[in-house]
Amino acid sequence: xxxxxxxxxxLAAIQQLLKEHSGxxxxxxxxxxxxxxxxxxxxxxxxxxxxxxxLMAKNTTGYxxxxxxxxxxxGKGVGAALxxxxxxxxxxxxxxxVFGAIRExxxxxASAVNALKIGMASDPVPCTYVYAxxxxxxxxxxxxxx
Length: 146
Fold this sequence. Notes:
Strand order of the largest sheet: 1-2-3-4-5-7-6
CATH superfamily: Gcn5-related N-acetyltransferase (GNAT)
Low-confidence stretches: 106-115, 117-129
Distance between the termini: 18 Å
Structural class: alpha+beta
Oligomer: single chain
Strand content: 25-35%
Radius of gyration: 14 Å
């Protein structure tokens, strides 16, 4: 599996994955140099997953608004790998905290949620509200790798 920044030629596959398994829309404006858009691809080139983290507050805070692992790749560490990489990128760009709301079971594997989970939202849609320090999240993700 290869994890790298998403580029414009990835957009159609990302949009198809999200349409089928997440419902979260994304456009070319999300693939900019400031925010963090990452894809995971299998060695055959298939799209295994996608994560998008917007940076705000002078890059000190990240917002994970889109996170999806293809059903064929769930349970294989894709979510945890994407979570780890987005946290590393966020830290590299100066972020110390990341937050977001992720629908449980809708579009990612359990290891990714366990790595990032902090508390439950009171939203009527089952979701996990995530607010984590970047170093803590990286530590939690690393513990899943052993």
